[in-house]
Amino acid sequence: xxxxxxxxxxxxxxxxxEVTRVIVDPLSREVSHIVVxxxxxxxxxxxIPASTIEAVTDDTVELRAPSSELNQFPVFRRDEYxxxxxxxxxxxxxxxxxxxxxxxxxxxxxxxNVKRRTFFTNLTHAIGALIALPLVYPVLRYVMKxxxxxxxxxxxxxxxxxxxxxxxxxxxxxFKKTVKEAFMPEAEVDKNVWVLKASPPVLEExxxxxxxxxxxxxxxxxxxNKRDVPYVAYSGKCPHLGCGYKWRNVPKLGRQIFLCPCHxxxxxxxxxxxxxxxxxxxxxxxxxxxxxxxxxxxxxxxxAGTKVQTRIV
Length: 313
Hints:
CATH class of the largest domain: Mainly Beta
Structural class: mainly beta
Number of domains: 2
Helix content: 10-25%
Largest sheet: 8 strands, mixed
CATH superfamily of the largest domain: Rieske [2Fe-2S] iron-sulphur domain
Number of strands: 20
């Protein structure tokens, strides 16, 4: 039986508080810790590992440690966790059977320390690379040739504006595109963009009173989005790390937003970053709308993780 929120917590000698939160390991999808709110004003919550739990009943969690040892456990830090509603973990519900409430998972660790290499290790690698370069250059040239091919500036039909029912509301349009990766054969992949019919204030925020130009690999202009056309299309990839994002209504914020659930980047309807690690706003793509309402876009993508847009597709 898994610990339940609001259950009483007893040490070997006395009752000490109740379970206020449950922490889940995102890999094993099992409860890894409970957070115990202790009796008494101003007493910090403690994060207790599941291995310390002796037994669990319907309304009580029994620990195998005396109350005098609780202070050895770390103080709970809320800012190091997110709720399971803010991230996507496949089949979590199949493993987790706690009562509804604040169930948390650790924030993703986006940066890891890399061990420092010694001088002689670097020297050995450099000499090896110089010896191998004449041998691998022809292979690399063949493999990398598609990377330096001209950008694909074809117009792709993705749907009709009749799907958009209100202003400043993101609507996802999915489409298929034939691509070629390095030396692999051509393949058809699923892609998407988000389109909205922007109100004048949102258009002003997107265009900053000037039209938006898009360029090919030579620097020539291939298309210009006009600032007085209300339809705006955004690339379906988050500028942070290229993840997919969603349109969400958040009552707590009192507004609708674009939310990347992987690392919690948040954008408004104009693509502006409201919160999270994203280094730049959402990336608009070329869009044109025919008189019958058909929408066409050019599938433009930019390098993720940079403040400046660098086109890669």
